[in-house]
């Protein structure tokens, strides 16, 4: 990748940063809302974990990673908006005829959401320890080993939906449904050990299951990096799969509808 390519990607990243700084309210709401829900859910999760023989659990062991995983997938909309707004502003055609190649257009739109996802995970777990008494028995490095591919998976889900959806309305509905579906099947809303019998065979088919499995291994079981290599590897595989979907279906010439 040459200096010109990096410069074009950097220009797109700077534009996204300026737009984010200009209107940070959506990001603030997406960060504060999970923290509020954690406080409401913690007593419920405390009872569920203690019933599952985690006798010293205070509930944060499930509420913090659960809400972090659930709300991280709502960032899928942010990735979509970054592309669809260009069509709404009628600036996408200008980008197409610019020297920027499709790879650069896609990469430039992924950087800021990826950074936002990583920052949000850091805030959620930091606040979990400070506000909710989250005790991490394992390695914080292991949390990062799970968190980084999870964040990458989220942004690639968003780009895959950009490639597949014709309108922002389609993307928004599908993204929100996926976030809720992933939360339910993956064990973000309830400990994986108490998932309904019919859900358990389906759970490994969603990335949130592996994220929660990895986080639980570190938080509850005291696992280190070696213990989370499988969940992290599966999350990388999901990321690769969504990347392939993007490469197959994304076309710069496809016209997108911003508001209808």
UniProtKB/TrEMBL annotation:
<dbReference type="Pfam" id="PF01061">
    <property type="entry name" value="ABC2_membrane"/>
</dbReference>
<feature type="transmembrane region" description="Helical">
    <location>
        <begin position="228"/>
        <end position="250"/>
    </location>
</feature>
<dbReference type="InterPro" id="IPR051784">
    <property type="entry name" value="Nod_factor_ABC_transporter"/>
</dbReference>
<dbReference type="InterPro" id="IPR013525">
    <property type="entry name" value="ABC2_TM"/>
</dbReference>
<feature type="transmembrane region" description="Helical">
    <location>
        <begin position="27"/>
        <end position="45"/>
    </location>
</feature>
<dbReference type="InterPro" id="IPR000412">
    <property type="entry name" value="ABC_2_transport"/>
</dbReference>
<keyword id="KW-0812">Transmembrane</keyword>
<keyword id="KW-1003">Cell membrane</keyword>
<keyword id="KW-0472">Membrane</keyword>
<keyword id="KW-1133">Transmembrane helix</keyword>
<keyword id="KW-0046">Antibiotic resistance</keyword>
<feature type="transmembrane region" description="Helical">
    <location>
        <begin position="140"/>
        <end position="164"/>
    </location>
</feature>
<keyword id="KW-0813">Transport</keyword>
<dbReference type="InterPro" id="IPR047817">
    <property type="entry name" value="ABC2_TM_bact-type"/>
</dbReference>
<feature type="transmembrane region" description="Helical">
    <location>
        <begin position="105"/>
        <end position="128"/>
    </location>
</feature>
<feature type="transmembrane region" description="Helical">
    <location>
        <begin position="65"/>
        <end position="84"/>
    </location>
</feature>
<protein>
    <recommendedName>
        <fullName>Transport permease protein</fullName>
    </recommendedName>
</protein>
<feature type="transmembrane region" description="Helical">
    <location>
        <begin position="171"/>
        <end position="189"/>
    </location>
</feature>
<feature type="domain" description="ABC transmembrane type-2">
    <location>
        <begin position="25"/>
        <end position="253"/>
    </location>
</feature>
<comment type="similarity">
    <text>Belongs to the ABC-2 integral membrane protein family.</text>
</comment>
């Amino acid at each position: 990748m040459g200096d010109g390519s990096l410069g074009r990607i950097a220009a797109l990243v700077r534009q996204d940063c300026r737009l984010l700084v200009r209107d940070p309210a959506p990001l603030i709401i997406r960060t504060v809302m999970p923290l509020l829900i954690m406080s409401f859910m913690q007593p419920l999760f405390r009872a569920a974990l203690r019933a599952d023989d985690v006798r010293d659990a205070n509930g944060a062991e499930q509420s913090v990673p659960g809400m972090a995983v659930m709300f991280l997938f709502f960032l899928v909309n942010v990735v979509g908006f970054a592309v669809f707004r260009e069509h709404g502003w009628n600036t996408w055609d200008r980008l197409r005829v610019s020297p920027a190649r499709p790879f650069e257009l896609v990469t430039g739109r992924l950087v800021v959401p990826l950074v936002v996802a990583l920052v949000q995970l850091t805030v959620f777990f930091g606040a979990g320890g400070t506000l909710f008494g989250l005790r991490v028995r394992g390695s914080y490095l292991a949390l990062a080993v799970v968190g980084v591919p999870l964040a990458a998976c989220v942004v690639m889900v968003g780009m895959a939906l950009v490639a597949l959806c014709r309108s922002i309305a389609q993307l928004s509905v599908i993204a929100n449904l996926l976030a809720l579906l992933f939360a339910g099947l993956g064990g973000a809303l309830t400990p994986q050990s108490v998932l309904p019998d019919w859900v358990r065979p389906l759970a490994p088919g969603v990335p949130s299951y592996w994220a929660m499995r990895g986080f639980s291994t570190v938080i509850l079981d005291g696992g280190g990096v070696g213990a989370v290599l499988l969940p992290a590897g599966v999350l990388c595989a999901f990321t690769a799969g969504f990347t392939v979907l993007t490469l197959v279906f994304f076309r710069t010439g496809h016209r997108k509808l911003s508001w209808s």
